[in-house]
Design a protein that fits this description.
The chain has 6 helices and 5 strands; from the N terminus they run H-E-H-E-H-E-H-E-H-E-H. The chain is α+β, with helices and mostly antiparallel strands and about 170 residues long. The protein has one domain: 60s Ribosomal Protein L30, Chain: A, CATH 3.30.1330.60. The protein has a 5-stranded mixed beta sheet with strand order 1-4-2-3-5, with helices on both faces. Strand 2, helix 3 and strand 3 form a beta-alpha-beta unit. The chain is globular, with a radius of gyration of 17 Å. The chain starts with a helix and ends in an 8-residue tail after the last helix.
Length: about 170
């Protein structure tokens, strides 16, 4: 790819406005929101609070669910930079959710960078998809890596049994 085509792609991406949700969501998930970001930005856009209000209300009504933040980027730029940008986007969403009262230990990051499922436009690729699950963390990990994800993170240290959703057996 030439420098000219990279610059042209970056200019086109900056001109594109926020997109509307509508493409396929994670398989087997309960998609509950989607937030879009400007080119090369992790700042929440106007209207994010309305989406996040619904997420917090859903999480409050469903205390056994885990909230998964799928961080995505468009393919413009270096892959390692895009993974870091996707993480910063998920962190922005997590920080706002925490401020709104959602416990951090219920939030999981599934980071795709530029390698996840692409949408029709680069503007639609710059997103954090928010979904819920009652499946064990191992299922989130498997889903992420099957979809070309780069990383999965969560707040607390867990045993393998907890990650796989097995009930630990009491011992002496």
């Amino acid at each position: 790819m030439t420098l000219r085509s990279i610059l042209l792609g970056a200019a086109m991406a900056m001109l594109a406005g926020p997109a509307v949700a509508g493409d396929a969501q994670p398989v087997g998930s309960g998609a509950i929101g989607e937030l879009y970001f400007r080119f090369d930005s992790a700042a929440l856009m106007d209207g994010a609070t309305g989406v996040l209000d619904k997420v917090v209300a859903f999480a409050s009504a469903n205390p056994d669910t885990r909230i998964v933040l799928d961080g995505h980027c468009d393919p413009i730029g270096a892959a390692d930079y895009n993974v870091k940008l996707a993480i910063r986007r998920a962190e922005s969403v997590r920080e706002q959710l925490k401020t709104m009262g959602l416990p951090e230990d219920r939030i999981v990051f599934a980071i795709y960078g530029e390698d996840g499922a692409h949408r029709r436009t680069h503007a639609q690729d710059r997103r954090v998809t928010i979904w819920s699950t009652t499946e064990p963390l191992a299922a989130v990990i498997d889903h992420t890596f099957a979809g070309k994800g780069e990383a999965v993170t969560w707040q607390q240290a867990l045993t393998i049994a907890e990650i796989e959703g097995r009930v630990p057996v009491a011992s002496r």
